[in-house]
Write a structure and sequence with these properties.
This protein is of the alpha/beta class and 483 residues long. It contains 14 helices and ten strands. Strand 5, helix 3 and strand 6 form a beta-alpha-beta unit. The protein is globular, with a radius of gyration of 22 Å. The structure holds 2-acetamido-2-deoxy-beta-D-glucopyranose (6 copies).
Length: 483
């Protein structure tokens, strides 16, 4: 099979726990209208080289409505997408700030949103994109702002969800003289290349209230695989899944990209099940595991394959998406575009680079205990190669991921005053801290909750565990701030 453009997708979805998700087509970050003003911080380009004095401007937001001299400073860490100013008005941390008299800051992550350290995202420039540089950005920001705003007597608490959840924990680990405490929500602190557990958890979460659901999804997915074996079915498949262009699967990568893309719709539903994300401008949040599994159980709709088609149609309608583009060469072409403003510059190009050079996190279908097939680890690693160039292969990515775990410690966290909330429905919890490591390294496993569930604004329909979780985090922080 010719490997001319190969690769695959990877997704980052929409802006979430403040900027990210870890998957899917990079959609434009939804932004709703809020009145918070952009502010700009003069940041160093390369913190790891004292001889390099180049600087650039990093975006941040401030909410000083609740600040009191006796209160802490809260720093929300931006992640793999534009920092969404909606977080300056909404979200659990704002409710803590109100009660604690905190000053609230949100620093956008370098290379995302409007924080552009270099003139473009060429592979050469992307070497300044790393979690280590991002942590050093936070340290410099904190140091300069402390001086500028006279915050010397106040304690800093860092917050983040998902990748920024890792950054929150790592900031406390690496800069204990700066951060007093951290709330690391849904943080996959253990980097891993072959992240097969992701789909294992998807299967378990689908089965939670509907024991037959994974089996019907598997039957549907197997049927799809059978249909793909014959070109005469491509027109039908194109129509069933609203593909933007007639399906054309001529390489292994085309094939994997198509199957991965379709599966990601379901993965996304599981990861964000019932999260209160509407305030961020996310569409289709009312499609939940419950909705998907109810459709998969509706015999009146036909075979499992036909029900699965209905699931996809339903999701697309709710997200107001017109069609799905599964052209792998188009994806690669978009991902190779290094211009700010290019089609993958909302985060797709940057985040895949970080996974190839730091984290892996590749959600392969290599595990037998999950319903999907067709997107093995090799397909994910091949994307690194196809998009960023000839140096990438499995052994290089494996080495990079090992280095990340050596640097931060992975699950072996040696620190204090960090809270690790994790939704147990969320596939990412498999790489997080789910048991208490000590009296002040506190795990909060959240039953029936999804990715970053503790961070979103409260609402009546939320998982019943959340009010107690928010109180526990608040009480813990209150306690630590007295130390
Ligand atoms: C801070 O957040 C509160 C609560 O949402 C909001 O009422 C206020 O307008 C915000 N203040 C600023 C300066 O953004
Ligand atoms: C399972 O059902 C319970 C009770 O109705 C509900 O609270 C929970 O969110 C459901 N879990 C999933 C994954 O749908
Ligand atoms: C979700 O909301 C949309 C309107 O925003 C509605 O058309 C659709 O029926 C809802 N879906 C479910 C499963 O409730
Ligand atoms: C990925 O992990 C799965 C499950 O542990 C294993 O079966 C598979 O061989 C691994 N893939 C690679 C390429 O190492
Ligand atoms: C991967 O690339 C490295 C250097 O770029 C090379 O030394 C190694 O042999 C390659 N490994 C494989 C499995 O191709
Ligand atoms: C961790 O310790 C806290 C008390 O600090 C407790 O409330 C919680 O249940 C413990 N978590 C786990 C997962 O055991």
């Amino acid at each position: 099979m010719a490997y001319t453009h190969m690769l695959v997708m990877f997704f980052i979805g929409v802006s979430l726990c403040n900027g990210f998700i870890y998957r899917r087509f990079y959609a434009k970050s939804p932004q709703i209208s809020v009145t918070v003003q952009d502010q700009w911080f003069v940041q160093r380009l390369d913190h790891l080289n004292g001889a390099d004095s180049r600087v650039w401007k990093q975006r941040y937001f401030v909410n000083d409505s609740f600040t009191q001299d006796s209160g802490p400073v809260f720093l929300m860490i931006g992640g793999e997408g534009a920092a969404n100013p909606a977080w300056m008005t909404y979200g659990t941390w704002i409710t803590y700030a109100e009660k604690m008299g905190a000053l609230c800051l949100l620093l956008e992550h370098r290379f995302y949103g409007q924080s552009h350290p270099t003139e473009d995202m060429s592979v050469d420039n992307l070497r300044y994109l790393s979690s280590q540089q991002a942590l050093a950005d936070l340290a410099h920001f904190q140091t300069v702002m402390t001086e500028k705003l006279g915050l010397g007597s106040r304690k800093w608490v860092v917050f983040g969800g998902s990748y920024p959840g890792c950054l929150a924990a790592w900031y406390r680990i690496k800069f204990p003289h700066l951060a007093h405490a951290a709330v690391a929500s849904s943080a996959p602190v253990q980097a891993v290349v072959n992240f097969t557990e992701y789909l294992d958890v998807v299967q378990a979460s689908l089965a939670r209230n509907h024991s037959d659901c994974p089996r019907s999804v598997k039957l549907a997915s197997d049927t799809l695989l059978e249909l793909l074996a014959y070109k005469e079915n491509y027109e039908k498949i194109t129509k069933d899944f609203n593909l933007c262009k007639l399906l054309d699967v001529s390489s292994k990568m085309d094939f994997a990209f198509f199957l991965d893309t379709i599966a990601e719709y379901v993965m996304d539903i599981v990861q964000y099940n019932n999260d209160n994300r509407e305030f961020e401008g996310v569409k289709g949040t009312n499609v939940t595991i419950q909705v998907v599994c109810n459709i998969m159980a509706s015999e009146s709709l036909g075979s499992p394959y036909e029900r699965y088609v209905e699931v996809l149609q339903h999701i697309m309608k709710a997200k107001k998406e017109k069609c799905i583009d599964v052209r792998y060469h188009k994806y690669v072409q978009d991902m190779r575009d290094s211009r700010w403003g290019g089609p993958s510059s909302t985060g797709g190009r940057q985040w895949l680079y970080q996974t190839c050079t730091e984290f892996g996190y590749f959600q392969s279908s290599d595990s037998p205990s999950q319903p999907f097939s067709g997107f093995p680890l090799s397909y994910h690693v091949q994307q690194c190669y196809d998009i960023y160039g000839a140096d990438f292969n499995l052994s290089m990515v494996t080495g990079a991921v090992q280095q990340t775990n050596e640097n931060y410690g992975g699950l072996n966290v040696q620190a204090s005053r960090i809270i690790f909330p994790n939704g147990l429905i969320d596939p990412w919890h498999a790489l997080g801290i789910n048991t208490n490591l000590s009296i002040d390294l506190v795990a909060i496993p959240m039953q029936d909750a999804a990715h970053c569930a503790d961070m979103y604004p409260a609402r009546p329909e939320e998982p019943p565990v959340l009010p107690a979780v928010r109180r526990q985090i608040f009480d813990q922080l209150t306690n630590w701030l007295q130390l």
